[in-house]
Amino acid sequence: MARSGAVLGVGVIAAVGAGGMATAKDRPNPPISMPDLAHLADDVTDALPAVQDLPGIGPLLAGESGEETAGAVPAHGSPQPFSQVGLTAQDRANGTTDAGEALRARIMRQAEQQQTAADEAEREAAVRAATEAASEAAAEQKAQEEAEREAAAKEAERKAAAEAERKAAEAKRKAAEAERKAEADRLAELAGSYALPLSSYTLTSTFGEAGDMWSANHTGQDFAAPTGTPVKAVHGGTITEAGWAGAYGYRIVLTLDDGTEVWYCHLSSMVRTSGSVSTGEVIGRVGATGNVTGPHLHLEVRPGGGAPINPLSWLRQFGLNP
């Protein structure tokens, strides 16, 4: 229709130009001769652009598969209805005969494709987010499990150390108990072989005590008792001296097997003056001979016959408690 109108307009302009501006009043009506409009229409038709080349129209009428759209004038030269302009071969194969419906269908398909792409992108984003969240959760779970394992290992180590410490303390306690028992057994055995010098007494002047009765500090331990109280050998040994000893009065020296000398001083009488004696055997009697103020036994202990030591400490090491 557009091309036919254009041809008709061109023919009218050509006719007016050829006849000039004439009126019925000025001159008579000349005979009208029509030009070859068919030839002119073909020329105008060839000069017009194809529909698909029109700006903004061609892309809308283009086929989805890149096929060229059908023009206003088909190859065989006969015009087609405007409603079919822009139809592709694929549209016709699908049974579509309306260009507008075909265009709407293509737009709808494009919209569906875009929506599908958007949905796919959203789904992929959701999958990535879920994967990242799962990875973070797994990492947190792993870190928590590792922390729990470390805490459990430390707790086990602490318990093991505590148990080892407890066992060490228990072993130490048992060792100390065994040592005390062994010492008690030793002292009990020794007590059977050692004896106190008197059965009944009162401790008076002690070892190392200062006084006017002796020139230096007291060198022994005094056991006060009535005159005539029996004096016993503290351990088996040999009497190596017996007799008067000046300030010591009557004195008996008992030498033990290890060389220790035990001095019994201020005796009123000497029952044994020589030979071997056994533990607890009576060797003399309490008196007040020598430099004294009253009857008592002055006992001295001299290891190896040397300087005196505290008699009470010496007796205690054998399980005796004066």
TrEMBL record:
Record-given protein name? M23 family metallopeptidase
Bias (Low complexity): 127-141
Q: Which SUPFAM superfamilies match?
A: Duplicated hybrid motif
- InterPro entries attached to this UniProt entry: Cell_wall_metabolism_enzyme (IPR050570), Dup_hybrid_motif (IPR011055), M23ase_b-sheet_dom (IPR016047)
Q: Where is the M23ase beta-sheet core domain?
A: 217-311
Which region ranges are annotated with the description Disordered?
A: 58-81, 110-174
Q: Which Gene3D superfamilies match?
A: Glucose Permease (Domain IIA)
Q: Which Pfam families match?
A: Peptidase_M23
Q: Where is the composition biased (Basic and acidic residues)?
A: 142-174
